Amino acid sequence: MSRGLAGFDRFLIFLLSLLLILGGLWAVLWYFDVSIAHRYAEYLDLGIVSRAFSASWWPAALGIFTALSVILGLILLIANLRRNSFNRLTSPHSNSTGDLSLATTRLADAVGDDLEKTPQVEDVKNTTKEDRGRQTLTWRITADPRVSMPTLISAVNQADQDVREAVGDLDVDTRYLVQLNPVS
Q1: Whole-model pTM above 0.70?
Q2: Which of 13, 15, 20, 126 might form a disulfide with 108, Cβ 3.0–4.6 angstroms?
Q3: Crossing angle for the helix pair 58-81 and 3-31, nearest 10 degrees?
Q4: What are the TM regions of this chain, as residue ranges (predicted)?
Protein backbone atom coordinates (compact mmCIF):
# COMPACT_ATOMS: atom_id res chain seq x y z
CA MET A 1 0.00 0.00 0.00
CA SER A 2 1.41 3.38 -0.94
CA ARG A 3 1.72 6.25 1.53
CA GLY A 4 -0.89 8.26 -0.34
CA LEU A 5 -3.42 5.42 -0.31
CA ALA A 6 -2.75 4.71 3.37
CA GLY A 7 -3.20 8.41 4.19
CA PHE A 8 -6.43 8.59 2.18
CA ASP A 9 -7.74 5.43 3.89
CA ARG A 10 -6.95 6.89 7.31
CA PHE A 11 -8.64 10.17 6.40
CA LEU A 12 -11.81 8.36 5.26
CA ILE A 13 -11.90 6.19 8.38
CA PHE A 14 -11.32 9.26 10.58
CA LEU A 15 -14.13 11.17 8.85
CA LEU A 16 -16.56 8.25 9.00
CA SER A 17 -15.69 7.59 12.65
CA LEU A 18 -16.19 11.24 13.55
CA LEU A 19 -19.61 11.29 11.84
CA LEU A 20 -20.67 8.09 13.58
CA ILE A 21 -19.48 9.33 16.98
CA LEU A 22 -21.28 12.66 16.56
CA GLY A 23 -24.45 10.93 15.36
CA GLY A 24 -24.39 8.49 18.26
CA LEU A 25 -23.68 11.24 20.77
CA TRP A 26 -26.54 13.32 19.39
CA ALA A 27 -28.93 10.34 19.62
CA VAL A 28 -27.94 9.65 23.25
CA LEU A 29 -28.32 13.31 24.18
CA TRP A 30 -31.74 13.40 22.44
CA TYR A 31 -32.84 10.31 24.37
CA PHE A 32 -31.91 11.89 27.71
CA ASP A 33 -33.65 15.18 26.78
CA VAL A 34 -30.50 17.29 26.83
CA SER A 35 -31.39 20.77 25.58
CA ILE A 36 -28.43 21.13 23.17
CA ALA A 37 -29.59 18.06 21.20
CA HIS A 38 -33.09 19.49 20.88
CA ARG A 39 -31.66 22.87 19.86
CA TYR A 40 -29.68 21.29 16.99
CA ALA A 41 -32.75 19.27 15.97
CA GLU A 42 -34.59 22.55 15.37
CA TYR A 43 -32.26 23.20 12.43
CA LEU A 44 -33.56 20.08 10.67
CA ASP A 45 -36.51 20.91 8.47
CA LEU A 46 -38.30 17.65 7.88
CA GLY A 47 -40.54 19.35 5.34
CA ILE A 48 -37.58 19.92 3.05
CA VAL A 49 -36.59 16.27 3.37
CA SER A 50 -40.11 14.99 2.58
CA ARG A 51 -40.42 17.38 -0.40
CA ALA A 52 -37.06 16.19 -1.73
CA PHE A 53 -38.18 12.56 -1.52
CA SER A 54 -41.28 13.30 -3.56
CA ALA A 55 -39.58 15.59 -6.12
CA SER A 56 -39.23 14.48 -9.74
CA TRP A 57 -35.44 14.86 -9.69
CA TRP A 58 -35.01 12.61 -6.63
CA PRO A 59 -34.78 9.22 -8.46
CA ALA A 60 -32.18 10.61 -10.90
CA ALA A 61 -30.13 12.17 -8.08
CA LEU A 62 -30.32 8.96 -6.07
CA GLY A 63 -29.27 6.92 -9.12
CA ILE A 64 -26.29 9.19 -9.83
CA PHE A 65 -25.25 9.17 -6.19
CA THR A 66 -25.52 5.37 -6.08
CA ALA A 67 -23.49 4.94 -9.28
CA LEU A 68 -20.76 7.30 -8.06
CA SER A 69 -20.67 5.56 -4.68
CA VAL A 70 -20.33 2.14 -6.30
CA ILE A 71 -17.57 3.38 -8.63
CA LEU A 72 -15.65 5.07 -5.78
CA GLY A 73 -16.12 2.00 -3.59
CA LEU A 74 -14.78 -0.31 -6.31
CA ILE A 75 -11.80 1.97 -6.93
CA LEU A 76 -10.94 1.99 -3.22
CA LEU A 77 -11.46 -1.77 -2.95
CA ILE A 78 -9.23 -2.51 -5.93
CA ALA A 79 -6.57 -0.07 -4.73
CA ASN A 80 -6.52 -1.70 -1.30
CA LEU A 81 -6.54 -5.28 -2.58
CA ARG A 82 -3.99 -4.77 -5.35
CA ARG A 83 -0.93 -6.92 -4.95
CA ASN A 84 2.24 -4.91 -4.69
CA SER A 85 4.56 -7.86 -5.04
CA PHE A 86 7.82 -7.85 -6.94
CA ASN A 87 10.11 -10.70 -7.93
CA ARG A 88 13.18 -8.92 -9.26
CA LEU A 89 15.50 -6.17 -8.11
CA THR A 90 17.53 -4.41 -10.77
CA SER A 91 20.98 -3.18 -9.82
CA PRO A 92 21.88 0.48 -10.27
CA HIS A 93 25.04 -0.82 -11.97
CA SER A 94 22.99 -2.01 -14.96
CA ASN A 95 23.96 -0.33 -18.22
CA SER A 96 23.30 -0.46 -21.95
CA THR A 97 25.13 -3.80 -22.18
CA GLY A 98 22.58 -5.49 -19.93
CA ASP A 99 20.65 -5.49 -16.72
CA LEU A 100 21.94 -6.95 -13.48
CA SER A 101 19.02 -8.28 -11.50
CA LEU A 102 18.35 -10.49 -8.51
CA ALA A 103 15.42 -12.91 -8.21
CA THR A 104 14.04 -11.84 -4.84
CA THR A 105 11.49 -14.65 -4.51
CA ARG A 106 14.23 -17.25 -4.90
CA LEU A 107 16.38 -15.41 -2.37
CA ALA A 108 13.46 -15.22 0.08
CA ASP A 109 12.70 -18.92 -0.40
CA ALA A 110 16.34 -19.87 0.22
CA VAL A 111 16.54 -17.76 3.38
CA GLY A 112 13.21 -19.22 4.57
CA ASP A 113 14.46 -22.77 3.96
CA ASP A 114 17.60 -21.95 5.94
CA LEU A 115 15.59 -20.47 8.83
CA GLU A 116 13.38 -23.60 8.94
CA LYS A 117 16.48 -25.61 9.85
CA THR A 118 16.67 -23.76 13.19
CA PRO A 119 15.64 -26.09 16.05
CA GLN A 120 11.96 -25.77 17.03
CA VAL A 121 11.12 -23.49 14.09
CA GLU A 122 8.05 -25.10 12.56
CA ASP A 123 7.34 -22.99 9.49
CA VAL A 124 8.65 -19.97 7.59
CA LYS A 125 6.55 -18.10 5.04
CA ASN A 126 7.92 -15.23 2.99
CA THR A 127 6.56 -12.39 0.91
CA THR A 128 8.17 -9.84 -1.38
CA LYS A 129 5.97 -6.76 -1.46
CA GLU A 130 6.20 -3.06 -1.88
CA ASP A 131 5.11 -1.50 1.41
CA ARG A 132 4.67 2.28 1.54
CA GLY A 133 6.93 2.79 -1.43
CA ARG A 134 9.70 0.51 -0.09
CA GLN A 135 10.51 -2.89 -1.53
CA THR A 136 10.36 -5.22 1.45
CA LEU A 137 11.24 -8.87 1.96
CA THR A 138 9.27 -10.32 4.90
CA TRP A 139 9.64 -13.66 6.66
CA ARG A 140 6.95 -14.89 9.07
CA ILE A 141 8.61 -17.42 11.36
CA THR A 142 6.31 -19.77 13.30
CA ALA A 143 8.07 -21.48 16.17
CA ASP A 144 7.40 -23.71 19.15
CA PRO A 145 7.00 -21.67 22.37
CA ARG A 146 9.98 -23.50 23.88
CA VAL A 147 12.33 -22.26 21.15
CA SER A 148 15.66 -20.96 22.36
CA MET A 149 15.35 -17.24 21.72
CA PRO A 150 19.13 -16.62 21.58
CA THR A 151 19.41 -19.36 18.93
CA LEU A 152 16.48 -17.94 16.95
CA ILE A 153 17.85 -14.38 17.16
CA SER A 154 21.24 -15.62 16.03
CA ALA A 155 19.64 -17.43 13.07
CA VAL A 156 17.67 -14.31 12.10
CA ASN A 157 20.79 -12.13 12.35
CA GLN A 158 22.72 -14.60 10.19
CA ALA A 159 19.86 -14.68 7.67
CA ASP A 160 19.80 -10.90 7.51
CA GLN A 161 23.56 -10.80 7.02
CA ASP A 162 23.23 -13.35 4.18
CA VAL A 163 20.51 -11.23 2.56
CA ARG A 164 22.64 -8.09 2.82
CA GLU A 165 25.56 -9.88 1.20
CA ALA A 166 23.30 -11.20 -1.59
CA VAL A 167 21.62 -7.90 -2.43
CA GLY A 168 24.74 -5.78 -2.09
CA ASP A 169 23.91 -2.13 -2.75
CA LEU A 170 20.32 -2.79 -3.88
CA ASP A 171 17.76 -0.78 -1.95
CA VAL A 172 15.54 -3.32 -0.17
CA ASP A 173 14.16 -3.62 3.37
CA THR A 174 13.96 -6.83 5.37
CA ARG A 175 11.45 -7.74 8.05
CA TYR A 176 11.39 -10.82 10.27
CA LEU A 177 8.16 -11.55 12.15
CA VAL A 178 8.30 -14.22 14.86
CA GLN A 179 5.10 -15.92 15.94
CA LEU A 180 5.15 -18.43 18.77
CA ASN A 181 2.50 -21.15 18.81
CA PRO A 182 0.26 -21.38 21.88
CA VAL A 183 1.60 -23.38 24.81
CA SER A 184 -0.08 -26.75 24.96
Answers
A1: no
A2: 126
A3: 130
A4: 12-32, 57-79
